[in-house]
Amino acid sequence: MEDTIAAIATAYGEGGIGIIRISGENSLSILNKIFTPFKNSKIESRRMTYGTINDTSNGHIIDEVLAVYMKKPSTYTAEDVVEINCHGSIISLKRTLELVLREGARMAEPGEFTKRAFLNGRLDLSQAEAVIDVIKAKTDKGFDVAVSQLDGQLSSRIKEIRKSILDLLVEITVNIDYPDEDIEYLTYENAQKQIKLIGDMIENLLSTADTGRLIKEGIKVAIVGKPNVGKSSLMNSLLRESRAIVTEIPGTTRDTIEESINVRGIPVNLIDTAGIRDTDDIVEQLGIKKSKEAFNSADFVIFIVDGSCGLTEEDNEILELLKDRRCLVLINKQDLGSVIDKELFQSKLNAADIIPTRLIDGEGIDEIESYIEGLVYGGKISQKESVLVNNVRHIELLEKSLKSLNDASQMIGAGEALEFVEVDINEAYALLGEIIGETVSDDVLDEVFSRFCLGK
Ligand code: GDP
Question: What is the enclosing helix (H) or strand (E) of 423?
């Protein structure tokens, strides 16, 4: 971390402004070499200065910019930082960056600014990981969860649990080291109780993991049904714009279409499929093969039937495939009357829920959206809950830590000596420490920060 790093911090492409970020010891001296303030104004920490970037080899103006120098330690990286606001032109940004590198900075690696923030103690590891989630969030809800993690809410929860473990460890150690002293004796029963409480705290966090991940990564939903039942109409209603062709000719949706939409804060990847049915048409067969693949890769299936004409052979084939899967069945075209007996239909499917719809005018869409929302929140988690675990690394560490505690609990149950119990509890403590980066290897750090974009 001795050297000074630089990168383009804004997205590539045309824009109003584009920013070069520099961090490290030489940030200010590099700025002084390449920047000419307007009317010889002085560069002061945290004040934007207007001026020009001039090529140091020939004095030519590269761009008119606003530059700011931020003195350490209260900066993003906790080092001296300079940001140069150029015009949002690739050429300007490239030339300015080249100049900065020529004057002694090194090109930053992806995530290196945030890595420095972590190594300098400005952020803990789970907060640093939240930075990437903030940038990549697809929905408002995903964004809110990421911002709360950046704010340190997950970290505080982890620290709380670690504090409880530490308290228990202290008691155990005292009992091991000074068994004869006049101290409060830690009974096995009491230790068992404390372990249980700590385990419950970890389990509470883990119970948010499914929802947390769905909010971050989205849910993959396949829409199936024979041709002409209203699959495209459903897609369109959900998309609220006609990107999938709605047509009355069966089988024109030959291939699958996938669209990502935002259903009440949940990213939903919709897979529209060609009707699943036997056919001699090669092109359509390909579509059907794809449908089955899509169907298998989906987290959830919405099956549409035409309520006005009853179940056909094709419907029954799909039903057979869906028999034991949790799915949502829409009995569509209610405006044309329904000849499908809901109870009889329900009895053919083990884990299906049924909603009657009139997709031609969007009737039922609200209910479908609520249903999807219910799938993700599972009725278990309040939407206001802001501490959600959504990072695979965190989930694994929480699970391992819980296992160590369970091992400790079993040893106590078997009447083993406290020395052995202590090892497992220590392990649980260290594993939780990895979430916030207190005990973490360089490999893990490299892995975490390699997921970042340049300039962050
Ligand atoms: P897909 O082949 O399954 O994608 O079906 P489409 O969405 O293309 O719909 C086929 C036809 O049924 C279109 O003409 C739609 O307008 C019509 N349709 C869709 N939903 C309804 C509905 O609820 N009632 C009526 N009467 N027609 C519908």
Answer: helix 418-436
Is residue 275 pLDDT above 70, yes or no?
A: no
Of 375, 386, 396, nearest to 208 by C-alpha is 386
User: Ligand 1: does its nearest atom lie under 6 Å from the Cβ of 242?
Assistant: no
Which residue is listed with tokens 């884990």? 351
Q: What are the pLDDT digits (tens) for 236-266?
A: 888 764 344 444 444 444 455 667 788 877 8
Amino acid at 136: K
Strands 15-23 and 5-8, bridge-based pairing: antiparallel
- Confirm or reject: Cβ of 231 under 6 Å from ligand 1: yes
Cα–Cα dist 359/404, whole Å: 52
SS3 readout for 236-281:
HHHHCCCCCCCCCCCCCCCCCEEEEEEECCEEEEEEECCCCCCCCC
- Ligand 1 centroid – CA 297 distance (Å): 25
pTM of the entire structure? 0.74
Closest CA to 308 of 279, 285, 330: 330
Q: What is the C-alpha radius of gyration for the chain, rounded to an integer number of angstroms?
A: 29
Give the CA angle between residues 258, 281, 238 to the nearest 5°. Answer: 25
Ligand 1 center from residue 358 Cα (angstroms):
9
Tens digit of pLDDT for each residue in 54-112? 999 999 999 999 999 999 999 999 999 999 999 999 999 999 999 999 999 999 999 99
Between CA 19 and CA 364 the distance in angstroms is 47
| CA dist 70 → 74, 84, 113, 267 (Å) | 8, 11, 14, 38
- The minimum-distance atom of ligand 1 relative to the CA of 336 is 26
- Which protein residue's CA is at the shortest distance from atom 21 of ligand 1? 360
Atom of ligand 1 nearest to the CA of 246: 8
332 lines ligand 1 (CB under 6 A): yes
Nearest to 82 by CA among 131, 13, 32: 32
Which residue's alpha carbon is at the smallest distance from atom 6 of ligand 1? 230
Backbone φ and ψ of 249, nearest 5°: -85, 120
Q: Decide if pLDDT at 319 tops 70.
A: yes
Most confident stretch, 281-290, 320-329, 379-388? 320-329
Q: Does residue 332 register a pLDDT over 80?
A: yes
Cβ of 335 below 6 Å from ligand 1: yes
pLDDT averaged over every residue in the chain: 86
Render pLDDT for 336-390 as a digit per residue (tens, 0 to 9): 988 888 777 777 776 678 999 999 988 999 999 989 888 887 655 555 555 889 8
For a mutational test of ligand 1's pocket, the pick from 223, 255, 359, i.e. the residue with the most ligand atoms closer than 8 A to its C-beta, is: 359
DSSP 440: -
